[in-house]
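Working notes for the structural subgroup meeting. M.R. asked for a predicted model of this chain before we commit to crystallization trials. I am recording the input and output together here so anyone reviewing the notebook later can reproduce the run.

Input as submitted:
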Amino acid sequence: MKKIFIALMLLCSLSASAQISIGLRENKFGFISYEKNNWLVKLEHSIYNEPFADQYVRGYAGYKYDVNEQFHLSGNLYGGTVYKNYYQDFGANLEASYDLCNFLSARVDYNPNYDTFYKWEHRYLFELKGNVTDEVAITADYSTIPENRISEKRAHVGVIFHVKNLWVKPALSIPIDESIHTLKVVTSVQYTF
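Returned structure, recorded in token form:
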């Protein structure tokens, strides 16, 4: 892990025109990413309250493409494992977003995922985002993309605060599936250098 982190930091220092970001995804995954010329590499690591051998690590590689000022596409391939090696997963995150007007946008994500235990799953997300100001937006989505590992139907309602290089999104995660009874508050944070 230490060698991967050092290699990623060396890669990040190669260009001043690149963007380096660090952050936290949904309370459970810390990450560092490097982006240049619309290409992205990202390393994500769990921060579970578990022994190190039960922690999860995932690597991403992807590309973003702006079709025009309103329509944006991105795709990432990823692979991950638990240090104990009792399961691995790999898949893709494919995203399309469209700015409906200057204050409202829509996003669709498709996430085919293969897990060595659960096998293939096809997961998705539909989101609407309304910009209140340049620094505040309200989001609502329906998703089957899991917050942990197992796919579940959830709605998320949140607020995005974007001030300079800092992006923070606290959200309420509401179960839609009747067999799930956990209401959660999830927070994502990203700082770009």
